[in-house]
Q: What sequence folds into this?
DNA sequence: CTGTACATGTAAGTAGTTACATGATTGG
DNA sequence: CCAATCATGTAACTACTTACATGTACAG
């Protein structure tokens, strides 16, 4: 039973959506299309392949639901094991350096599956990567040879503009996420 | 010999780098790492697989170069057929809607392989996609249910911030690219 | 004498894709 | 009556990855 330690992004993403409630493969495909399509959207057939795998690994359970008028469906529910695997992923901020953008956004979107501190840590790690990238881009800009074609220059400016805007967003997002960790006592206080 | 009409992004990317001059597989991997790594960077082994394919399709030619002290190498050169395939790709702005960001940036970077009008058309198409996306995001923002978790909200704000910054960049980049089409006569004029 | 750069490739595996198959129900 | 929605899946394929294999030369 040696559980193969790591799952793929798609597997985690499905697990994350499952954490929002019991659903069928079809539901998941629709939910993905409507919410996180910009960061992740596998084909339906891929979802149907992944779900039984999650069950085999004990991360989810399935149950048949009979329906009148429409085909029967299998609905899936995340297990405690599944939840803890998801939480571990959401808490892991030592992300593979490249394409971190999409992955971060996906984790942020699914952050409901872990304690609110996790989202903040992801944000800080993301900021770190952005700042490193900013320094790389600024260095590139400084060292651009005089004969560099404009295309390289404008492409670099694109990168710089995006990184800077994203860093500004981080400053905006942080207090909002902090509020979820230590909710501001404003009038009445709400627990948990 | 029915030439399979379309190439993969990786194949076009390699063709694009090849347009910059004769190079070996090893050279290409290094060049990619140093320039376009943020938008595209396949493994070396993939490059070594693609190159003979390009030769088989008549898009490139190869020639052996003996070296003293180091292993012999094969250097590849783009053919006229290859150039026109590349140009066609660089001119095609009806891009598959999603993940257009990376692809656009790649084309922009390799835009030297086509007449300067192509880059401008790509930019306009990109702007169109960004504006459509902006409208979608703004619509999403307007229709956010009151119980939407903050994570969805801040993720959306991320998208909005990036799209807006990128649109601002477009306005900045356009005149620069326009100048390459109709070079401003400032002092001496340079042809071609 | 160890690690890095140069240089090319194979083998095995994976994560994903598109296209196909099936079939009932509902809305225009 | 036609198209879309609901619902699940298989088959065939593809692009790409990691790990491995091999070997020289040079710098520290």
A:
């Amino acid at each position: 039973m040696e559980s193969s330690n790591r799952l793929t992004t798609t597997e985690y993403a499905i697990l994350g959506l499952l954490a929002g409630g019991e659903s069928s493969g079809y539901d998941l495909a629709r939910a993905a299309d409507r919410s996180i399509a910009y960061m992740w959207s596998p084909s339906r057939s891929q979802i149907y392949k992944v779900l039984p795998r999650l069950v085999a690994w004990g991360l989810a359970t399935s149950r048949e639901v009979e329906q009148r008028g429409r085909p029967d469906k299998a609905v899936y529910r995340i297990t405690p094991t599944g939840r803890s695997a998801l939480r571990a992923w959401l808490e892991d901020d030592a992300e593979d350096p490249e394409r971190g953008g999409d992955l971060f956004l996906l984790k942020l979107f699914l952050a409901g599956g872990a304690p609110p501190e996790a989202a903040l840590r992801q944000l800080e790690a993301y900021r770190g990567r952005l700042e490193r990238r900013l320094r790389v881009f600024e260095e590139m800009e400084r060292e651009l040879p005089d004969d560099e074609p404009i295309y390289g220059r404008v492409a670099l400016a694109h990168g710089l503009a995006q990184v800077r805007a994203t860093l500004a967003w981080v400053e905006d997002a942080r207090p909002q996420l902090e509020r979820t960790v230590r909710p501001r006592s404003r009038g009445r206080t709400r627990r948990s």
Remarks:
- Residues 115-182 of chain A form one domain.
- The first strand of chain A starts at residue 23 and ends at 24.
- Chain A has a mean pLDDT of 88.
